[in-house]
Amino acid sequence: MFYSVYRVWLLTAALFFLPAPPCSEAAASTAAEKYTGKGFSFSLPASYIPDGPPDGGTFLSFSSPYSNVKVFAQELSKRVRAETYIEYGNRQLYLGKAGFSLRQKRNTTVNGYRITALAYSRPPIVSLDNDRNYYREVHIAGNRHNRVVTFWAKAAQEHCFSLEKDLDLAVRSFREIPEEPPAGQTPAQTLVISPQVRYTGKKVTLEIPPGEIVWGRFCPGVPFDAGSYDRMQDSEVRLGHKFEFLMTYCRFPDNKPFPAEAVQNVYRDGRVLMLTLQPFDGRTDWVAVPEIIAGKHDAAIKEWAEGLKKIGEPVFVRPLNEMNGDWDPWCAWYYGKDTDLYILAWRHIVDLFRETGTTNALFVWNPHDRSYPDFEWNNPHRYYPGDAYVDWIGLTGYNNGTSHPADTWREFDDIYRPLYDDYLRHYPNKPFMITEFSCNEAGGDKARWIERCMVSLARNYPNIKIATWFDSRDNAWLYQLDSSPEAFAAFQQGLRDGNWLKRAVFSAP
Q1: What share of the chain is helix, strand, coil (3-state, %, to 5)?
Q2: Average pLDDT of the chain, as a whole number
Q3: Do 131 and 219 fall within a single domain?
Q4: Enclosing domain of residue 30
Q5: What pLDDT does 187 receive?
Q6: Which of 308, 345, 397, 455 could pair with 292 as two cysteines, CB 3.0-4.6 Å apart?
Q7: 278-316: pLDDT as tens digits
Q8: Does residue 241 lie in a domain region?
C-alpha cells in the first residue's frame, strides 16, 4: 500500500509540480470506471457519478462526494490553436480577477500527448457549505483529432490531493478511439409548443394565445426619462402600433433606490416591462458573481424584490444576461470558468425574490446566440440554472452588418433558425422570447432584411411569444427603426400586414 501511494504521489508531482496540501483523508479506492467522449476514452475512480448523458460527446460532467470533474473536447482550427485556446481561456485567471490566484502551471508529456496543467484557487465563499474553491485544469493536446481535451475539476482544499490523483488517473488512461457516428437529433418541429401565456396582476393582465407574437421595444431612456417616453409614443403614432412590451437596463445592485414611479407608469400606460439587471460599473474589473453568492448584495436585491411586489403586476426580470460573452464580467471567463458559480448567483437572486413573496416576477434566462470565447466550457447551456429557476428562455442575436472587420451580414433565419432549434431541444417546456435584436444598415439592404424577418418570424417560430426590437444606435451599428426612411417604412408595413397580436395587455378599471 505504501509503495502504491508513493508511486501515485510521484506521478502527480511530475504532472502538477505542487506540494501536497494538508490532507487527512484516506487513500482513494483503486477501482475505476471507463468513460468515452467524442473520439477518446479515459477512466475515473468509481466514486464519480455522471451528472447526465454526454452532450454530443464534447462535454461530460461527473461528481464525487468531494469533487467535480468536467471534460471538454475543444475542436481546433487555423484561428483557434491549442495555445490560443489555453492562453486566452486563462487570461483573466492570470490577471487575478475575482480573487483567483494561479498556484502553478506546468507543461509536460504523457503517453506522447502534450500536457498543460494548471492549479489555481480563489477566496472561499463562507456562505457555501463545502465550498470547492481549489481548481485543477489539465489540457491534453497533440492528438490526431485536432482537438484539445480538457479536464477541469474542483474540490475543497482538504481534498486537493485526492483530486490530483483522480486527474492523474484520467490523464494516464486517456486514449484516442474511433469516433461513433453522431446520433440523429430529434426534429425541433416535433417538440411541444408552449400553450397560452396568461399572467394577472393587481390591475394588469398579459395574455398571449398560442401562435401569437407580441412586439416589444427598447428605447434609450424609456421608461425613466419622460422626454424619451414621449418621443417613443410619437413614433408609435407614425407606426400605427403600440408596443405593449418594453425592455430596459438597470445597473444592479446600485446605490439608487428602486424606481417605483417609473415602473408603475409603464403599467398605468397599459404596458408590461422587462428589467435587465446587470452588475456592471462600466468596466470589467468588478466581478459580482461571487459577491452575490456570498450575500453581499442581499439588501439591494430584496429592495428591488419588495418594490416589484408592491407594484403587483407581471414584470419580467432578466438578470446577468449574455453571460457567455466576454464583454460581461459575469461571464465565467472572469472567474475560473466555473459556470457553477453563475448558477448559484442566479439561484440566489431568485431565492431572495421568493423569500419576499414576489410571485409576480418572471425570470428570463438569456445567453447570446454566439459565445465569446467560443469554447466548449463557455457553451451557454453550461450556465442553465435549472427549470425550477427559469420562467422564460431568452434568445438574442443581431445582424451586425459589416461596420467592423469581424462583422458579417446575417439574415434573420441565419441567426435564429439554428438557435431556436437548439434551444427547443434543450428547453421544450419553456416559452421563448427574443429579448433584443436588430439589423444594422451597413453591409446589405436593411429594409429587405426587416421584410424577410417579419414574414419568417410570424410563420416559422411558434414558440417565440415576444420579439423586442433594440431601437438604438450602438456605436457604429445603426440599429434604430428610423436609421433610414426605407427601414422605418418596412417595419411600418410589416406591422400592418403581419398577423401580430395587437392587444395583449388588459387593464382593469
Answers
A1: 35, 25, 40
A2: 91
A3: no
A4: 8-176
A5: 55
A6: 345
A7: 998 888 999 999 999 999 999 999 999 999 999 999 999
A8: yes
